[in-house]
Amino acid sequence: MTILAAAIILASLLIALAALTAHSFGQRLLRQQARFAKRLLALDEELFDLEEAIEKGPEQIPIPLQTPQGLPAGTPAPSFQLPDLQGKRVSLASFLGKKVLLIAWSPSCGFCQSMASEVAKLPHDGRGGRPIPVLITSGTAEENRALVEQHRIAAPVLLQQDHEVQEAYRAMPTPTGYLIDERGVIASDYAMGAVQLLEIARHPEKAIKKEKKPNKPAEPGGTGAPEGRGRVQRDGLSAGTMAPLFRLPRVDGGELALENLRGQRVLLVFSDPHCEPCQRLARELEPLHRRLSSPRIVMVSRRDLEANRAKVQEHGLTFPVVLQRHWEVSRDYAIFATPVAYLIDERGVLASDPAVGVDAVLNLAETVANQIGKEVLPVSG
Question: What is the mean pLDDT of residues 104-117?
Answer without folding.
Answer: 92
